[in-house]
Amino acid sequence: MTYWRPHPAITAVVYLLAITVPIAIVLAVIGSSPTLLEKVPEEHRGTVAAFGDGAARLSGSDGGIFGFDDAGASNSTVQGLPLPLPRHGDWSPRRPGDYPPPAGLTSGIDYSVEITEDGHMTHWPCEHEIPVRSFDAPPGSEGDLIWAIETLAFASGLPLRYAGPGTDDERDAEGAISVFHGDHPMFSDPEIAGVGGVAAWPHGLVLQGAVTLRPGQVTPYPGDPWSRSLTLHELMHAVGVDHAVPYGPEVMAERPGPHPPTILGAGDQFALHMVGCR
Ligand SMILES: [Zn+2]
């Protein structure tokens, strides 16, 4: 899951990893609340604690801004917790088999999407704007983040919108993608330049995405190919896309070739179609 930085000016070999095992992420979210943690079976509490960094609060079954229908909430549980289900017409589960690839593209090679344990693709609802906020972004880096968000919105149809720097209250906000610049436990591995992923409910409903970019990997000079490629790659994890094969032409290649891609490959585009809104 690592990615080597080919830029000769920076010696650290680096890159990305998807923190996207859905159940672990759901537990990570739960891990931020002692009350909810009590409901996690004892054998899993260590996992929860290990994922504690950056975990988000969970507002319970009211569904927060998505306005879930409480009547459906008892239909699905994880670890005994009631889960929100979207209102009819708001969102529906998707399975990868519903998206046969076009000729020339192969799942697992040219593209992959995140799949939950119950066999569904993780994807965001289409009916609500998804704000993307930055936290502790280095001066000058905003332009490349906006470029990545708009590239992703255009290619996927997802209602992504750059919402500027976030406040402390908005860290890990529900219904949003948070882009952090700072440390992350996974950065103890020097090859990892960034992490990105989704918090997914069973059936693949995504209500939250997060990206953390390692300091020094995003330059203050707009237009740097590595900054753009890294930011776009991690944001794609935050909308449910997983890795394509290493060294391929895709932005989602598990490791990039000598030139970090900034143009979406055919596999990237198909994966964004699968998780997107058109
Ligand atoms: Zn990755």
TrEMBL record:
Superkingdom of source: Bacteria
Keywords, alphabetical: Membrane, Transmembrane, Transmembrane helix
Protein name as catalogued: Peptidase metallopeptidase domain-containing protein
Organism, as annotated: Dietzia aurantiaca
Spans through the membrane: 12-31
